[in-house]
């Protein structure tokens, strides 16, 4: 018997309470493998007892497997025992059996409808409409998973619940049940929610805190300790610009008060739960690390796209897969491509012998005429299966699935063929997104980036692990035809430099949804040149070689690693692909999408200063201009004024003026000699409103990036007169010395 514990590397993330344990019981003596039919040697039922001192077992999910995959006994591959070919293991007492293979799911979708969601990103469809499409696909796929998850043949899904709330500077719930904003998930939920989504319109300012407080309120997400897994999916496209503000602090998600004060923030109720965030647009400055931290602190993750029409629905389905990962559902393929009426897109994908069902979503991008169809051909030359969009789904998207084996006995094991057929007989290609999920009871994957706060100049650690019956699958780097790689889409230039070096004037904010001057300046830059922010794309191979070059800690342990340099601030998107052959299920494929935001942090050695003594109202003041730069010399750029603070002995901290060109200016009055001035940067990913003033004791040597700016700053045109003219003074003194000698 093998025990797979919660939080074991590669195991399912389970719930926020980490309550899942997998027991793998292999009864090797109950079958006569010398007989051609693998005849049973059992003379009667066997009873196994599993006891846990505390807490009590709340439920059990069982999956019976055998080696009757086809051909003579014994086969090395395993299959789930079909419903018509028992016997099956059953639960006697006292815990209930989860015949679907999972616990229930309570999910709240917290969705942005603020004014900035009017953006079309250069296309014809607004972000809000793209969000509606993604939400429809999320709900439709959830319904498909429910309809195909029964192990015994009869649909016995657990009691799932869903809540949907839109936020701007107010709230709009689309769901409302008896005593709760969450409603039971039923077969009619996709059509009902689709109809409720249509009339949602754009709003005003952005208050993520209000949205999250609504999701976790007394009548929303249930409290911890119940039978269901509890998750929140947050989608936003902009910076928070009105209270309440949300941020991660002290291991919890907290919110400001109604006035925006963050001195005594309020923790969200009902923690811990898992939060997944999906953001849209070119996040930069403080907002991106804040949104990423909201997810990371809960054990979830964040995804970002600058191309919502192409990727938003795929990101929502990626989150849904992880919501259901308490069972054994994983992403097998993620495809973004085009199809033509005369030349349909086609590809193949492998399915293991231990896969119990497939579920998929095919979404044509908005604005396509005629729609698409999906054709899947089973292994062995079976008849093609054709799938079309339901009438209620006006986007033309297809969400469907089926259990294995297929009617007629085809177990679905092997290579499937797939074609995307266009109903439009024109010459224009139809862009689409395709996501394939599979429920594999023997194979478990863990693909992603190490959960950390990354900064420019560092390296992002990627890892991939495939567990086969709870043991890591080794040797993929040398296995013929196997692939362990990630496609990396990364920033190609520094957003701080782009903002600093441009003379563009900030664009007007969307109606009612005010952006910062830095955000509006970037909007103006991208409006004039959509390619101003460059992107690079390349592939990295993840290796299990124990080498420093790959960042792998130990060779041949089944954990494959790659190290990606973080050269610029911004979002790094990774599309993982692992393909190979497993011992228990044969050929397999797994994919995952992950996003990591890399911060730009000021480096004391690279940051530049100039200073000048001026006369103001008969008194003196020192004017300091700082140009913060990161360790690679890239400018931090505008947008950070609430995080940079000048500290003067005997005076209150001074916030600089953001000049929107990468420089920050401060003017400090003084009497006598110039004061000792230090510059500090507050690095925590916490929202700091314009009225924020650092409490006493906040500015310390630990967050100082310049201790004596005037005394130790580099000489230059802005320095005190005696620093600018020291060479002339030296020459005069030397001449006087020579004349005196004569």
Radius of gyration: 30 Å
Instruction: Give me the CATH architecture of the largest domain, please.
Output: 3-Layer(aba) Sandwich
Helix content: 10-25%
Integer tally of domains: 4
How is the biggest beta sheet arranged?
7 strands, mixed
Q: What is the β-strand count?
A: 40
CATH class group of the largest domain: Alpha Beta
- Outline: elongated
Estimate what percentage of residues fall within beta strands: 25-35%
The chain-level structural class is: alpha+beta
Specify the CATH homologous superfamily of the largest domain: von Willebrand factor, type A domain
Look at the structure and give the mean pLDDT: 87
Feature tags:
742 residues, Immunoglobulin-like, seven-stranded mixed beta sheet, elongated, 15% helix, Rossmann fold, Jelly Rolls, alpha+beta
Topology:
Layout: E1 2-4, E2 22-24, E3 31-32, E4 39-40, E5 65-66, E6 79-80, E7 105-112, H1 127-148, E8 161-167, E9 171-173, E10 183-184, H2 189-197, H3 208-215, E11 229-236, E12 246-249, E13 252-255, E14 266-267, E15 274-280, H4 287-296, E16 302-305, H5 308-323, E17 329-339, E18 345-351, E19 355-364, E20 372-377, E21 385-387, E22 398-403, E23 414-422, E24 430-440, E25 443-449, E26 454-455, E27 459-468, E28 471-472, E29 483-491, H6 495-501, H7 517-528, E30 535-541, E31 559-565, E32 570-582, E33 586-599, E34 608-616, E35 619-627, E36 644-648, E37 657-658, E38 664-670, E39 677-681, E40 704-706, H8 709-712, H9 721-724, H10 726-741
Parallel strand pairs: 7-8, 7-11, 11-15, 15-16, 26-33
Antiparallel strand pairs: 1-2, 3-4, 5-6, 8-9, 8-10, 12-13, 13-14, 17-24, 18-23, 19-22, 19-24, 20-21, 20-23, 25-27, 27-28, 27-31, 29-30, 29-32, 32-33, 34-35, 35-38, 36-39, 37-38, 39-40
Helix pairs in contact: 1-2, 1-5
């Amino acid at each position: 018997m093998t025990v797979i514990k919660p939080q074991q590397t590669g195991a399912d993330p389970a719930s926020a309470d980490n309550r899942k344990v997998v027991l793998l019981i292999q009864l090797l003596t109950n079958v006569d493998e010398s007989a051609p039919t693998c005849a049973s040697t059992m003379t009667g039922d066997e009873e196994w007892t599993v006891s846990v001192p505390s807490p009590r077992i709340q439920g059990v999910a069982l999956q019976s497997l055998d080696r009757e995959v086809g051909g003579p006994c014994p086969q090395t591959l395993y299959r789930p025992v079909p419903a018509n070919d028992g016997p099956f293991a059953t639960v006697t007492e006292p815990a209930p059996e989860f015949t679907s293979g999972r616990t229930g799911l309570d999910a709240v979708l917290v969705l942005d409808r603020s004014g900035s969601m009017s953006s079309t990103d250069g296309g014809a469809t607004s972000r809000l409409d793209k969000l509606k499409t993604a939400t429809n696909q999320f709900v439709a796929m959830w319904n498909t998973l429910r309809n195909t998850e029964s192990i015994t043949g009869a649909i016995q899904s657990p009691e799932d619940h869903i809540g949907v709330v839109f936020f701007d500077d107010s709230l709009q719930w689309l769901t409302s049940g008896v005593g709760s904003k969450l409603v039971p998930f039923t077969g009619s939920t996709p059509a009902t929610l689709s109809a409720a989504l249509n009339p949602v319109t754009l709003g005003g300012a952005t208050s993520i805190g209000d949205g999250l407080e609504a999701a976790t309120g007394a009548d929303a997400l249930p409290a911890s300790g119940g039978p269901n897994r509890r998750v929140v999916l947050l989608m936003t496209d902009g910076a928070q610009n009105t209270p309440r503000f949300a941020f991660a602090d002290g291991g919890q998600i907290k919110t400001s008060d109604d006035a925006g004060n963050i001195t005594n923030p309020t923790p969200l109720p009902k923690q811990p739960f898992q939060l997944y965030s999906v953001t849209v647009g070119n996040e930069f400055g403080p907002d991106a690390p804040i949104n990423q931290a909201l997810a990371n602190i809960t054990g979830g993750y964040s995804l970002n796209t600058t191309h919502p029409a192409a990727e938003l629905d795929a990101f929502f389905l990626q989150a849904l897969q992880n919501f259901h990962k308490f069972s054994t559902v994983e992403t097998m393929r993620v495809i973004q491509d085009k199809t033509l009426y005369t030349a349909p897109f086609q590809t193949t994908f492998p399915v293991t012998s231990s896969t119990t069902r497939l579920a998929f979503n095919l979404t044509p991008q908005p604005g396509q005429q005629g729609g698409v169809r999906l054709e899947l051909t089973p292994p062995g030359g079976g008849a093609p299966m054709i799938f079309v969009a339901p009438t209620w789904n006006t986007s033309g998207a297809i969400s469907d699935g089926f259990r294995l084996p297929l009617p007629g006995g085809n177990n679905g094991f092997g290579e499937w063929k797939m074609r995307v057929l266009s109903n439009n007989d024109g010459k224009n290609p139809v862009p689409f997104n395709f996501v394939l999920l599979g429920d594999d009871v023997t194979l478990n994957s863990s693909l992603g980036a190490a959960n950390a706060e990354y900064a420019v100049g560092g390296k992002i650690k990627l890892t991939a692990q495939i567990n086969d019956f709870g043991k890591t699958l080794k040797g993929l780097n040398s296995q013929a035809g196997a692939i362990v790689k990630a496609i990396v889409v990364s920033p190609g230039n520094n957003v701080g430099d782009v903002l600093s070096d441009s003379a563009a004037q900030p664009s007007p904010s969307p109606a009612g949804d005010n952006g910062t001057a830095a955000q509006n300046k970037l909007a103006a830059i991208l409006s004039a040149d959509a390619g101003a922010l460059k992107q690079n794309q390349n592939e990295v191979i993840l290796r299990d070689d124990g080498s420093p070059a790959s960042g792998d800690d130990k060779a041949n342990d089944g954990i494959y690693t790659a190290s990606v340099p973080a050269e610029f601030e911004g979002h790094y998107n990774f599309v993982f692909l692992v393909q190979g052959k497993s011992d228990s299920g044969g050929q397999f494929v797994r994919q995952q999408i992950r996003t990591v935001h890399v911060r730009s942090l000021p480096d004391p050695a690279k940051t530049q200063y100039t200073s000048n003594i001026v006369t103001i109202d008969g008194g003196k003041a020192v004017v300091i201009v700082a140009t913060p730069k990161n360790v690679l010399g890239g400018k931090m750029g505008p947008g950070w004024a609430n995080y940079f603070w000048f500290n003067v002995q005997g005076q209150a901290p001074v916030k600089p003026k953001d000049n929107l060109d990468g420089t920050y200016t401060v003017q400090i009055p003084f009497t006598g000699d110039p004061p000792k001035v230090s510059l500090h940067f507050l690095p925590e990913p916490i929202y700091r409103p314009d009225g924020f003033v650092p409490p006493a004791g906040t500015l310390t040597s630990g967050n100082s990036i310049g201790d004596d700016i005037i005394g130790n700053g580099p000489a230059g045109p802005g320095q005190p007169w005696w620093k600018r003219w020291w060479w002339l003074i030296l020459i005069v003194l030397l001449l006087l010395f020579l004349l005196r000698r004569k």
